[in-house]
Amino acid sequence: MRTVAVVLAGGVGQRMGAATPKQLIEVGGRPILALSIEAFDRHPDVDEVLVVMAAGHLRTAAAIAEPFGKASRVIEGGDTRTASTAAALRALADHPGDTRVLFHDAARPFVDRATIDRVLAALETEAAVAVGVPSSDTIVEVAGGVVAAMPPRETLLRFQTPQGFRLDTVRKAYELALADPDLRATDDCGIVHRYLPDVPVRVVAGSERNLKVTHPLDIVIAEHLATENPPEAQ
């Protein structure tokens, strides 16, 4: 069974406030994008890495991806996460339906092998797999500026990536989603959950190191993580 990792770098990082997309910012002397590609290029069970890059930066991304033997292509992404995933699915049109596909945010450069292992292991029996870590904060629902509900914290997780799928499952979910004029989604498991409600989304454990670089302060943390020795996979 073939495994493809899709590194989604289509965003421009507006919340970062930088002049360049955040995935091209260097931490530890290397672009964030390079670190994310490398995590999958090194994994023995990943056969191919497809990079989806923001428009106007494909040449730079191709130069970053070129040293990695499993990086097959760099393609242009869309204006939204959903559009970028749809572009990746079109690029994988010739791949069989039982292909395992991992969608990963390029802005998460410190995903470890153990997390990838857990997603791939779950895909042996499941069609959709999410990665989650417990919430250390109390999460509340707010309506009109006041607290409307306080879900029990022990039932809540923060999602990370990679999110894994059998290709035929995520293809079908996106066919339905893209035909919906009211489509709203922030990640791929959300698409499957909404449009294929009979398909369970299995959740496996993530890692607190699997930081998403979103705000300027995250760069400070990322610099620290990039310079320390990675811990043993756990």
Main beta sheet, described? 7 strands, mixed
Name the beta content range.
15-25%
Our Rg estimate from Cα atoms comes to: 17 Å
Low-confidence stretches: none
Q: What structural class do helix, strand and pairing data support?
A: alpha/beta
**Strand neighbour order, sheet with most strands:** 5-4-1-6-10-7-11
**Helical residue percent band:** 25-40%
> What is the overall pLDDT average?
93
Instruction: Please report the number of helical segments.
Output: 7
Rough shape?
globular
Order of helices and strands: EEEHEHEHEHEEEEHHEH
Number of strands: 11
From the N-terminal CA to the C-terminal CA, the straight-line distance is 25 Å
Briefly characterize the structure:
Helices cover 30% and strands 24% of the residues.
Overview of the structural elements:
The chain has 234 residues and is an alpha/beta fold. It contains seven helices and eleven strands. A seven-stranded mixed β-sheet has the order 5-4-1-6-10-7-11, with helices on both faces. Strands 2-3 form a two-stranded antiparallel sheet. Strand 4 (48-53), helix 2 and strand 5 (71-76) form a beta-alpha-beta unit. The longest helix is centred in the last third of the chain and has 12 residues, at 167-178. It starts with a strand and ends in a 7-residue tail after the last helix.
